[in-house]
Every structure is written in structure tokens, then in C-alpha cells.
Amino acid sequence: MGFPVNEKRMPRRQFLSLATWAIGGLIGLAYAIPGVAYLVSPALQKATEKNWIPLGSTSKVELGTPTLFRATVERRAGWIVNQEEISVYVLTEDGRDFIAMSNVCTHLGCRVRWIADEDRFFCPCHNGQFDRQGNVISGPPPKSLNRYEVRVEGDEMQVLGG
Length: 162
Description:
alpha+beta, 4-stranded antiparallel sheet, Rieske Iron-sulfur Protein, 1 helix
């Protein structure tokens, strides 16, 4: 028995063309699915918990004098990992309660430094001055020095980084 005479058969050239497109589509999907997952996965990751940055021992903080601490922080943005150094002034009056302040001026982002003889922070860019707690005394800064949340575990101080 052969094929019925009325039945239409697909020409060989059309079949091979269709098969080539189908195989190409499957190969494309095999690359596209992992590629899309790779591109979308950082957006689907949940926010991490609070990032506590270790500063050092509480014994390094002099009573009544802001003490500068430096720490290296690793920040992730998708696949990009940047390391940056932050500087924080820590102040305590009683050895139990700590205040952590940024050393970045709130005017234009210059670095402030503690001048012990004058009992104040000084910003060299535009003569901004802050008191011991980081409040503006004079100059163009619009607000006090930014503060960090501090916690002490044992003898180690940590600040909350964003």
C-alpha cells in the first residue's frame, strides 16, 4: 500500500527549513533562559539584614575627645563589588554611651578634622565649624554631622552602615 493520491505532502526543502528553524530556536532558548536569569537575579535578591561595621575596641576612645576610626566596607550593587574606606569620629563622655559621627562635612562633602586646641571640628574647604557633638557652630554647613547607630558587643564597637 502506498500513499493516498489526494494527501498533500510537505516538500523536502520546506521540511528541512522548518527543522533548521526549530533546532535554532531550541538552541537560542538554551542560551536565553540562563542569560535572562543571570540578568534578573540581582533584582530578585532580598535585601540583606543590617550591616554592622566593626570599628575597634572601646578602650581606644578617650573620654570627652572625639576619636577617629577607619573601617573598610564592601558594598555590592548587582555584580559590582566596591570597597571603600569610611572614617567615623566616636565620642563618649562616660565610657558607656557612644556617639558616632561622620567625618564628612554636610556642606559640600569635604573631610572635617578635630582640632583639640579649639575644641571643635573644622572643615577646611569653607571654614565650617562643628562642636564636639557635631552640631554646626559657624560657616555654611546646613546641618549637623551625620550620625551612625552604635552598638557595643563585649569590648568591640560597631556602627550601622547603609
